[in-house]
Amino acid sequence: MSWDFIVPVCVGDLVKTGGINQYVVQDVVSPKQIPQSISRFKAELRSKGSMCILQHFDTGYIVTGLAGSLPALLMSTTMSAAERKENLNAVKMSVYLLCKLTEQLESDSYRQSIVTAPGKGMHQWDSEREAVLQALVQLFQVDIRSLWNLSLVEEEFIRYVCVTCCCYKLLENPTISYVKSKPTRDGIIHLLGVMIKKYNHLLGASVKVIQLLQHFEQLSSVFAQAVSVWSTEYGVRAVIGEVIREIGLKSSEELAREGSGVKAFAAFLSELGSLVPELLIPYISMLITHLEGASHTMRMAVCEVLGELLVHILCGDGLDDAGKADRDRFFDTLQEHLHDTNSHVRARVIQVFTRIVNGKALPLCRYSEVMKLTVGRLMDKSVNVVKSAIQLLAAFIAHNPYSCKLSSEDLKKPLEKETAKLKEMKERRDGKVPVAVIKASELWAAMEPELLVTVRAELEPKGESEGEEEEEEEEQEEEDDRATGVKIAQYLRDNKYRNAVRLCVKAHSRFPESDIFSRLSTLSSETLMDTLAFIFKGNEPNVSQNLPPTPQKEEKEGDESELQKQEMLVQYLTDTEAFALQVEKAIAVINTMLYWKTTSVVQEAVQFCVTVCEFSVANSISGVRKMLPLVWSMDAAVKDAVVQAYRRLYLNPQGDTVRMKAQNLVDNLSELMVDASLGTIQCLEEIVQEFFGSGSSLQSTVIQVLWERFTGKRETSILHRRAAVLLLGMAREVVLGNLDTLCSVALGEKVTEDFLFARDTVITICSITDHVRQSKDAPFRLPQEHQLFTCLFNAIAEGVVMEDPYWQSFMEQAVRLIYFLSESPDQLCSRLLQRCARQLLDQIAEGGETNKNPIQDGSQDSEPVSCVCLAQLLGLCGAVAFWQVSHLERSVSAELRRRRGETEEREEKEKGPTSKSKAANESAMEEELGLMGASAEDTEAELIRKICETELLAEENLLCAFLPLLVKVCSSPGRYSHPQLTTAACLALSQYMMISPSACEENLRLMFTVLERSSLPVVRANAIIALGDLTVRFPNILEPWTQNLYARLGDEEPSVRQTAVTVLTQLVLKDVLKVKGQISEVALLLIDPEPHIASLALNFFNELSTKDNAIYNLLPDIISRLSDPERGMKSDDFNTIMTQLFSYITKERQTESLVEKLCQRFRTAKTERQWCDLAVSLSLLSMCERGFKRLQECWECYSDKLTEPGVYQPLLNIMAKLRRGAKAQFKAQVEEFEKRLTAVHTKGLENVESPEMEEENQKAEKTALRTPLPTRGRSKAKEGDSFVTPRKSRRTKKAQITFSSDEEEDEEDAVMAESETPKVTTPIARTSRRARLRN
Length: 1335
Hints:
disordered C terminus, mainly alpha, extended, 62 helices, 1335 residues
């Protein structure tokens, strides 16, 4: 073969005349001849094999059978030079054709997928692509380098033209990272791995990885997997170093540019760190430099890499000193970036810490520090950071190394106990130090004379029986010479010299070869004293080390060991308590997030509350109860999260049997019901009903357990019995057939022992009857003689004279149930009032003639009738009056409508077809005119109104008899000073006022007198609630008294202020009250010292801002009232309120109009403080270009006030805001106006306004006239919004009225004078009575 195949740079070079002996394509066939040439090539391929490529290369067909015969040729040792050359050309030509055709087909396939939908040809190429890659991998796994001279493969063949170029071309396909492309992806990775390992492609691959990552973001995960495979399976670890070095050398400015591939680099590093973290440690220093760069994406990636290293490599106790140093350094770095300037970095670092905690890789010494930093991130402005912080805190609790139950209160006592014990141990140790200083030789010298006498006495002859028993006992305890020596030394310290001498003599006979007793070979007083001295002074340096250790040494070592254990225990308890305190602090913050508007944050907060509750953290139940109202959330995700949380905590019981599971479930729900409020019970009802509606297998067993607890068959507490009856009501399992059981158990003879149990039973019956009464059939009623009403009647009558604190709540529910179920509730309640009143009259009669007055001086000891009993009777009167009105307007009215409907249906059936068509035409006409059913409904409404107006408070009605008593008690607080009596009387009077407009008007002045002058906060709060209800019922009557309602917002008692803002919020948002200037009193509550009241005020303005232009229309009046000098408000408080209110002004047109109004206000403002407040208000607006021009136009309004710093500085702040991000032309206008402001401020207006300035102003005005501002809507705003300074009103001084405690004084002095009564000014439009009755 005389030619060589040179791999060309481009395909076109093959047809050009090349160098000497270079192969050139000669036979370029036409398109029509290509099929024939391919057929010939196929035939030659079948007959001659792969070598036919040498004759048919010009055909350009892909040969895939090359790898089959090549290994045998390479293994042959007899291959000649010509054969080698021939095979080399065949390999190069085949690979070249294969790679170039692959690139062409890949380009055509991608182009076709963009233009049209994927076709059959594309799917065929997908399978062929995998075959091509497999063939190339098999080819290059064979060592073909021997075909080249000196085994040097030409670089063009490997890198620039053929193999690797084809691989990188395939990687550019956007679908390469999809799951369906995994075979292709794996084939490319392995082919490139072979090229890197065997064909010196390391540097080229590293450069290509960086280039492709910069342009194709989807390749980050692909290259991370590739580098991982190359470094592990192929052993080329240097590729990681090359790639990391290239990324590390990227400058911060380069990465900050758009299109720099920083996202791909970051994703690549994160993925690589999770795959091979151990290989990144040597190169981590190159990446840490990016933590100081401007690219937050790279900072996140580096932090993730550090996290992977800490979780998988730098963890555990087996680290060396260098590993521990790196670990601490990385943790310090991550903690620093918890305060990164970018919120995404902060969130990512918190997520990294979450993985570290879940992986149990966080050292114990860093728990407290990281926990504290995480709690601080709960206050972050970024929602993502807050969510991540909540997740990390949940992970801390779930994987905490301290205790399964975290409660600082429970840990406090053990910590104090163990700390005191440690202190005592240290004091005891310190107290032994002086004793230990005394040398044994000194002690020996002190005891030596007495010991010598004892030795001589013992060596003298004595009786045989003396001391035998002691010696026998001693011999039994002796084990070896060292133990005996220790015992002898102890005897000497305890001054038991006789025992020590006897034991020493005896030891010589037992241990003759011992070094300790060797001196006693000749027994004498001298040798015995020397032996004793040797044993006792054995701890001195000059004594032999073979002596036994003294008890002092052993005792000291034991004390030190116990001291160390105690110190470790105290440290553990200290860390646990600190951790628990941080958790409790986090709970308090996260509980406030349950009502955020961000759904994802609320979901995370709910999950956190569940986690802390499962670990019995202190106050965790508060969050669980606080989330309960979210079951009514309109957001389905939030509602589902709460339901699932309660199902996990309370409705997923543990137990071996169905019975045990049911008992545990009832226990869980009962604990939640204990001390629960009415709102909590209503929310729980929603969850419990969902459980019973789910068809659980536990339902029947749970119902059985509840009945057993309610009836007392199973011994349980009264709290759990009350919870059981409420749960039975929630489960809708109390059918009417169980009324006898309910009455006999809870409302029978023992009802007076527990009115709460009776009340909860009545609530349960009411809930069931509510469900029954919702049907459209005839209302379900029971006869008056029914056992239920008999029990209720007796319970109320007996309890009215018992002074039980829970009778009032029972009575209210009982009266409600009577009006719900009784056929004639008015008659039954009338008899009830008569009996209760008779009982009190009998009590007065029993009091004798000594005290004729009903009540004297508020003393219960001398009263013929108890104030509490009288208060209970008045409460019963008010409840009967209220439910009588409700019964008429709801039940009676509904029954009248039902009967009318039945009558109409019956009449329609009786009429013929002709009359039906005629009636249909008439009804259609009435419906068109809006009169459908109006006449009948109005007649029914008028009947109900007439009954309330004329009959309920008629003289023959028993309710009328109690009204004078109510008025007397309320109007004479000096005589009737008992708090419970006053409270009950005021509440009952307000319920009487609900009956009719005339009753309301007659007693309204008295009710407002009580509201303003009562000394009891609870009475004032109840009066606000009552007046709010009256405002809804009789708006025209209450409208002139609106100012008095707003006045309670400034009450000195926080509970009254809280009630007032709650009531007014409801009235205003429901459009019952007109929003007027008094709204400034609500604005004052934004700075209330009570956080809960401030949050209520903030919620009011948040809701009010949803109404069109409501706050915009009120702002001028609010500013006018708050900046009034007579109010004396601090400037900081004014700024705080205005900052919040101006945050609701977001429309550009509103801002422009407010700028003009506030500037005009400067003309009428009289004090410097008012000027400053107006300037501050202007600076709080989100000023725009149109607002700035309006500010320029109103120059004359405020220019003479610019000498005041309080006016000048806010205007400068406005200019600073306008300059940010402004265009050059507008920025120049702002700077020019700022210079003008500064000139007037420093020199004065009279020194600045020169003729030249006037000419410039005229030019500016002409320019403004050429480009007039759009005036659409401006004139309308001027017409509708007047902003005139209100003149100071001359208020007549109110007459001072004092409460009288003397019976002889005029009691009506306690009521407002007629002149103080507001007059009706503007009637409020209200809906018809028919519409109200429908509602």
